[in-house]
């Protein structure tokens, strides 16, 4: 952590931190990039204020352009499970870089990463793409190609990337920018109603609703796609009854697609499905699998994956798929996760201590708070009562959350800038970060109460 000490750590500020360089950059950005950002939630619309521009990142910290070191709970929205700028990952990328950046022809690292992913996740074949969006989009095309059926089922508030047919009652930034949400319709302008009509939506953690839909239309359904632990409505954990209902969809000839883009290698080496005993037909990955470079993947049994072109009739391609730098970053990250056996236990220990600390601090401040936590994923919902469905999450007090978020950021803690996101802990977060976070959280709860 040595390099970070050269920067201001703003642990106990009483006046607002100086952010003039970030503010100036944001003004410039807004002139040439829609909303000033290349992905919506980064713009801080839901929490107010303007986003920090990041100069560099190290371990558990982001260092912004004005020189503030911020304890980072976003981890690039999931990939940075080892912490930022991890030496093993950086060295693997440098080594690959020396050999050229892209070939558009097969390379050995693709084979190595495919072997590693299939071994760790007990999958037979995997195809690499460049984002999570491509992974889910391609897995659904495959499911439609295999079954010859058109309909798909997704769950309310689950997010599977931004392909047209999946922007229906979707989570993540679609919840954050809720002014664009139509009732029961596509979550985005520009999605034809005819596409949206092919996507049926059920409430997450509603086994009866899922069973009823499958009884009615199961024979028309190509696939049921789900987040095995939801991160994109905030964290929602599937009940045993819901998990059983998910397995039952297979009896209707529909494929079960686990979207592990967020949870894969995050909750265990076998993802959320491995942790919770879920068996899907196809799995999608992203985020951690690329170690901070753009990678996604989808995989499953060979009999299904062999429908993919050039082996089979389902077309899917990519100019930069299997890129050597991206493969190197993914390989180094997954090898480190496999080597460091205690990592997942350390992540759980830190994150459950964070959850307990937040509950206690909120209690002392008289702020109603529901913390959902599993492994290194956590959401602090501002409100009363259990949060297991999207409808519960939607009742959270987003104004209180926003005030709390700003209080944290002013004290050097970079939380996810939306009530409807998971935060992520990395292997670089330790005692010092936990203590600073909880002391910032205590001060920020006092602010949220008056919001
Ligand atoms: C992030 C995410 C995606 C989309 O991945 P991108 O790389 O942003 O396209 C899809 N599904 C889930 C569950 C995600 O968390």
From TrEMBL:
<comment type="similarity">
    <text>Belongs to the class-III pyridoxal-phosphate-dependent aminotransferase family. HemL subfamily.</text>
</comment>
<dbReference type="InterPro" id="IPR004639">
    <property type="entry name" value="4pyrrol_synth_GluAld_NH2Trfase"/>
</dbReference>
<keyword id="KW-0413">Isomerase</keyword>
<dbReference type="InterPro" id="IPR015422">
    <property type="entry name" value="PyrdxlP-dep_Trfase_small"/>
</dbReference>
<keyword id="KW-0663">Pyridoxal phosphate</keyword>
<comment type="pathway">
    <text>Porphyrin-containing compound metabolism; protoporphyrin-IX biosynthesis; 5-aminolevulinate from L-glutamyl-tRNA(Glu): step 2/2.</text>
</comment>
<dbReference type="GO" id="GO:0008483">
    <property type="term" value="F:transaminase activity"/>
</dbReference>
<dbReference type="InterPro" id="IPR015421">
    <property type="entry name" value="PyrdxlP-dep_Trfase_major"/>
</dbReference>
<comment type="subunit">
    <text>Homodimer.</text>
</comment>
<feature type="modified residue" description="N6-(pyridoxal phosphate)lysine">
    <location>
        <position position="287"/>
    </location>
</feature>
<keyword id="KW-0627">Porphyrin biosynthesis</keyword>
<keyword id="KW-0963">Cytoplasm</keyword>
<protein>
    <recommendedName>
        <fullName>Glutamate-1-semialdehyde 2,1-aminomutase</fullName>
        <ecNumber>5.4.3.8</ecNumber>
    </recommendedName>
</protein>
<dbReference type="GO" id="GO:0030170">
    <property type="term" value="F:pyridoxal phosphate binding"/>
</dbReference>
<dbReference type="Pfam" id="PF00202">
    <property type="entry name" value="Aminotran_3"/>
</dbReference>
<dbReference type="InterPro" id="IPR049704">
    <property type="entry name" value="Aminotrans_3_PPA_site"/>
</dbReference>
<dbReference type="InterPro" id="IPR005814">
    <property type="entry name" value="Aminotrans_3"/>
</dbReference>
<dbReference type="GO" id="GO:0006782">
    <property type="term" value="P:protoporphyrinogen IX biosynthetic process"/>
</dbReference>
<dbReference type="GO" id="GO:0042286">
    <property type="term" value="F:glutamate-1-semialdehyde 2,1-aminomutase activity"/>
</dbReference>
<dbReference type="InterPro" id="IPR015424">
    <property type="entry name" value="PyrdxlP-dep_Trfase"/>
</dbReference>
<dbReference type="GO" id="GO:0005737">
    <property type="term" value="C:cytoplasm"/>
</dbReference>
